[in-house]
Amino acid sequence: MSNPAPVQYPVNDLIKNRWSPRAFSDKPVPKEVLQSLFEAARWAPSSNNEQPWAYIVATKDDAENFGKSLGTLVEFNANWAKKAPVLVIAVAELAFAKNNTPNRNAQYDVGAASLQLSIEATARGLVVHQMAGFDPETAKEVYNIPQGWEPIAAMVIGYPGDASSLPEPYQSREKAPRARKPIREFVMSGEWGHTADFAK
Fold first, then answer.
1. Looking at the domain covering 13-163, what would its CATH class be?
2. SS (H, E, C) the chain
3. Is the pLDDT score of 11 beyond 90?
4. 20 near 129, Cβ under 8 Å?
5. Is the N or the C terminus of the chain less surrounded, counting Cβ atoms within 10 Å?
């Protein structure tokens, strides 16, 4: 199922077609496709080229690992994510490896890497749903994540499924129109709150 964004201005189709469904097929994601997704993440920009990201990946054919990742999700997300073939936890290194000083851009950089992964997934006919609805402390415990690293998001990766297979309230959310703030509300110039001329 495709659900292109109703854009105000022209953008690349990969951006227009990237979205975060909850209906996933149980079709496995081949190893070589996963390799390409994380290769895309690998080449994201980062402050001082620190690459402060790590990803814990669990595929459904590894039942123990998949169960551990599923157990970190809040119930609302676990209810639909359990059908997907791949679960991921994105983790940020909070200090620079070079000198152990705080890296205030770490989460920003992990977000950039995760977006590149998502765009690569879109190009390959997959979808990615990123989530804040998980328990970082549980993730730290079950995966022995070391001090100085912080789980910041969970992701579901797979092929699109049938929205009608979802129970409510998920199905209604899946079929709802996509919406975003117009750019005039967040693109400013000159001073805070003053919309840039080109965005009016």
1. alpha beta
2. CCCCCCCCCCCCHHHHHCCCCCCECCCCCCHHHHHHHHHHHHCCCCHHHCCCEEEEEEECCCHHHHHHHHCCECHHHHHHHCCCCEEEEEEEECECCCCCCECCCHHHHHHHHHHHHHHHHHHCCCEEEEECCECHHHHHHHHCCCCCEEEEEEEEEECECCHHHCCCCHHHHHHCCCCCCCHHHCCECCCCCCECHHHC
3. yes
4. yes
5. C
**pTM of the predicted structure, to 2 decimals:** 0.94
Q: Tell me: the pLDDT tens digits for 147-197?
A: 999 999 999 999 999 998 899 999 999 989 999 999 999 999 999 999 999
The token pair at 96 is: 């620079």
- Please, what is the end-to-end C-alpha distance for the chain in angstroms? 33
Q: How far apart are CA 75 and CA 96, in angstroms?
A: 34
Q: Which of 34, 92, 88 is nearest to 66 (CA)?
A: 88
Each domain of the chain, given as residue ranges in start order, spans 13-163
Whole-angstrom distance, CA of residue 127 vs CA of residue 118: 7
Give how far Cα 10 sits from Cα of 24, 116, 193, Å.
28, 20, 25
Give the number of C-alpha atoms closer than 13 A to the C-alpha of residue 18, restricted to the C-beta side.
18
